[in-house]
Amino acid sequence: xxxxxxxxxxxxxxxxxxxxxxxxxxxxxxxxxxxxxxxxxxxxxxxxxxxxxxxxxxxxxxxxxxxxxxxxxxxxxxxxxxxxxxxxxxxxxxxxxxxxxxxxxxxxxxxxxxxxxxxxxxxxxxxxxxxxxxxxxxxxxxxxxxxxxxxxxxxxxxxxxxxxxxxxxxxxxxxxxxxxxxxxxxxxxxxxxxxxxxxxxxxxxxxxxxxxxxxxxxxxxxxxxxxxxxxxxxxxxxxxxxxxxxxxxxxxxxxxxxxxxxxxxxxxxxxxxxxxxxxxxxxxxxxxxxxxxxxxxxxxxxxxxxxxxxxxxxxxxxxxxxxxxxxxxxxxxxxxxxxxxxxxxxxxxxxxxxxxxxxxxxxxxxxxxxxxxxxxxxxxxxxxxxxxxxxxxxxxxxxxxxxxxxxxxxxxxxxxxxxxxxxxxxxxxxxxxxxxxxxxxxxxxxxxxxxxxxxxxxxxxxxxxxxxxxxxxxxxxxxxxxxxxxxxxxxxxxxxxxxxxxxxxxxxxxxxxxxxxxxxxxxxxxxxxxxxxxxxxxxxxxxxxxxxxxxxxxxxxxxxxxxxxxxxxxxxxxxxxxxxxxxxxxxxxxxxxxxxxxxxxxxx
Length: 604
Known about the structure:
The chain is mainly alpha-helical. The protein has 3 domains: about 1-50, no CATH class; about 55-265, no CATH class; about 280-555, no CATH class. It has 25 helices and 3 strands. α8 (about 155-185) runs parallel beside α11 (about 230-260), α9 (about 195-210) runs antiparallel to α11 (about 230-260) and α14 crosses α21 (about 515-525).
């Protein structure tokens, strides 16, 4: 009960904060403080996103008023233009705060907000239609279903009815995509051919299957409620009607458009082939790595790191008695094919793998705890990637916990291809996605009561979050997580995989490599399975620049750790270093560097 009142009070306080700031803004051209202004701006955007309100779970008590759990965002082209005007005004307000009027913490906050807003403005004004909202791995047609099956709660009949209302709105969202395609066609932007092939297959299978995942999950959840058989049947019949009359026709229209547009598909794979593509890629690098590295600099860093990591792996293979005349990639591929490192393809294989992953999470949490001043309160679960997306999804990914603590963090493991889960690589994925990787960083951020609302929820960068997750793998190896040299090989394979990303992402988007050239390079250097290599390379094509953030972020954290060690000597405390890194939200790397340098100076 105390927890309820504490949580209710915090959520009500945030809502009251929004109202009070609105009143202040009616009578003032500028809010009282930067933190208040950014809190207001964030809360307004949060309340404009019913999906995000549902995701964080913090405002469910307001649902009878806001009805956000029954709504979906459906932004039009006009909405995006209004948002851009808002961004211009937002930047103007941010720059109106003079640094000599701000605290040191607020100066850092201003830097983050200005950096983020300038990138948004640049993207809209110069590259508005350069993305692929419908793609094989994170397309809107997949995200809509995943949100309803994995995020939308069904804890009572009202939430079941909210589910029905939301599903009825998905069709309009899909139709809006057709208008986006029209705008892209005007400037000659179409996805590569393979994207059309994958999406057409996904939509065709979804429409041809007798059982829709929306129907399956809904039926399972409503049967867990205290409802009569007639109530359950009525809800299921209504959902069936919505799917038949609204959902399926919209997905059929999307399918028809994809089939019709396929003849115009881009025969090239890199964004260099798009209008002003080189400048677009530079913005993607700046946005995702939060650095000013050029594509060539990142390419060269990647080549250097691939060689360094390969050398250590050759040493391990030699120690284990493998053929020294074979390349690292060949030896890793042989490990992937070796039955000793593969699960038997039995009907209960997925359950066994999930159980083993869960045990690894517990082991990692125990061994890593001495390296941190605080561990997260939120738990983390391991689940398989949903079957409807597992063929094109990454090997693993993470979904954060809700703010109210009711929904735990989830580490999703892709179990589609048995060769995708060699046992020697499982620990590395566990460390990256769960503890001390994504779950630890995201949960601690949510649980941090000392951060302002903006620093906690207002800005995110994969340079930090993915950099931290990759750093976590190396840290865990140093902490003794892992049982033998094979686990170290798995961790090194994970690292070389991210180093290879620097090479292939810049290779395709800057040096004009084809998808096949990038796949050959990744296969040669990592020994990953053909399924994994294809999925990964195709992901980088539709998500340019994001794959660079992992290794760039990791290298920066390691660089700062070594800088602190050298400066502080015996005074260096790894726990305090990790606190500085994790207790300041999700900052750009240039801000993280300033924070660590300030800590070094204060500790000297």
